[in-house]
Amino acid sequence: MAKKLSNNDPESLEAAFVRWVSEKRQNRLTILITGKTGVGKSRLVNALVGERVAKEGRSKSACTDTVTSYRAEINGVDVVVWDSPGLQDGTCNERLYLQDMESKLSQGFDVMIYCISMTDTRFYEADKSAIRTLTKEFGSKLWKNGVVALTFANLKTKDPDEEDDLAYYLGERYFWEKAIDEFLANLNVDLLVRQQIPIVPTGNYKQLRLHECENWLSDLWIKCFNVMSISSGLAFFKINESRLKYPDSSPATTSTAAAARSSEDDENQMPMPEDENQSAYNPDHEDIPREIPLNQKQEDGLLSRLWKAFSDVYKAAKNVGHRALRFFTRRGKSNVN
Ligand SMILES: Nc1nc2c(ncn2[C@@H]2O[C@H](COP(=O)(O)OP(=O)(O)OP(=O)(O)O)[C@@H](O)[C@H]2O)c(=O)[nH]1
Ligand SMILES: [Mg+2]
């Protein structure tokens, strides 16, 4: 058992925490991302890991009988992305496709992100059928590490009837939450599992602020972290360590408020066109956001989760609150690596 820790001995607490992180953290992170072609899978995964791992834009052959993989080493973590649009387009040999998926994912995955475009006016059969197939194949446990991303949420922030933008946006969001929950209930996915599945609206890189959240990327990042195991979460944390920015930290780092301000500025400079095809605006040229600003609640959630796992092992640490970890996580690379 670990040596005794106390409030008066932050050095030993830090050493114990750093040792725990290096023992616990896995050195590989596997992300399964799926959804119809063009729904924004590659863009989303690139934003999450901070590098253009997956190729964005229309794939040359939307349908193959195999699952595409992308690989990159980021901050010493081997990142593997399985990208599978093939289940939804209905033209592939489903059996072959699933066999390929099962063999490639035989070692499991750390998070599954199912993307649906919020611009869809219906919960289309293509998505229903893919969700049904995946749930049958992998079992309800698929959803324990699952997140649903509602992409293109930035195109749903204005009420077309020009009455109430917020009410319109929330209504659209509620439609998807209800439709997904009802569908999974029909597939016998447990209520407890269903209640834990994050359904997260996501947008483009320029407009990070949506009606109900300051920054969709921060929201998505935290929600993915929460559905991962601690070992995977630590790898996910390591990948993004230098992008995570904390509230009221050093003036050199961006606060959540500043990030919200800059996204307002962006909005003013470049309003999102309703129909991108008719505009010269090309989202492919946008840079991946360099920062993931966390607000106080998000930082507390992250620390509490780490703290709980850490103090389960180092029981002597229980008498120090989770915020003690802030000093080590905020210091970044030099310590928790
Ligand atoms: N405005 C806006 N554009 C987006 C969003 N997500 C993706 N895009 C753009 O939509 C296009 C397709 O995005 P991708 O990420 O390549 O889509 P994909 O699902 O990976 O496509 P395939 O690989 O062909 O299946 C790209 O031009 C993106 O820049 C979004 O939420 N909002
Ligand atoms: Mg793609």
Automatic annotation (TrEMBL):
AIG1-type G domain ranges (all copies): 26-245
A GO MF annotation of the entry reads: GTP binding
Does the record's keyword annotation contain Oxidoreductase? no
From the Swiss-Prot or TrEMBL record, give the protein name: AIG1-type G domain-containing protein
Native species of this protein? Pocillopora damicornis
Q: What is its main location?
A: membrane
> Which intervals carry biased composition (Acidic residues)?
264-277
According to its UniProt record, what is one Pfam family this protein matches?
AIG1
Q: Does the keyword Transmembrane apply?
A: yes
| Family (UniProt) | Belongs to the TRAFAC class TrmE-Era-EngA-EngB-Septin-like GTPase superfamily. AIG1/Toc34/Toc159-like paraseptin GTPase family. IAN subfamily.
Q: State the needed cofactors, names only.
A: Mg(2+)
**What are the start and end residues of every segment in region (Disordered)?**
247-289
A GO biological process held by the record: protein transport
Compositionally biased tracts (Low complexity):
249-261
Compartment(s) where it occurs, according to its Swiss-Prot or TrEMBL record: Membrane; Plastid, Chloroplast outer membrane
Q: Per UniProt, what is the membrane topology?
A: Single-pass membrane protein
Q: Which residues are the signal sequence here? A: none
Choose one Gene Ontology CC annotation of this protein and give it. membrane
What's in the keyword line of the UniProt record? Chloroplast, GTP-binding, Hydrolase, Magnesium, Membrane, Metal-binding, Nucleotide-binding, Plastid, Plastid outer membrane, Protein transport, Transmembrane, Transmembrane helix, Transport
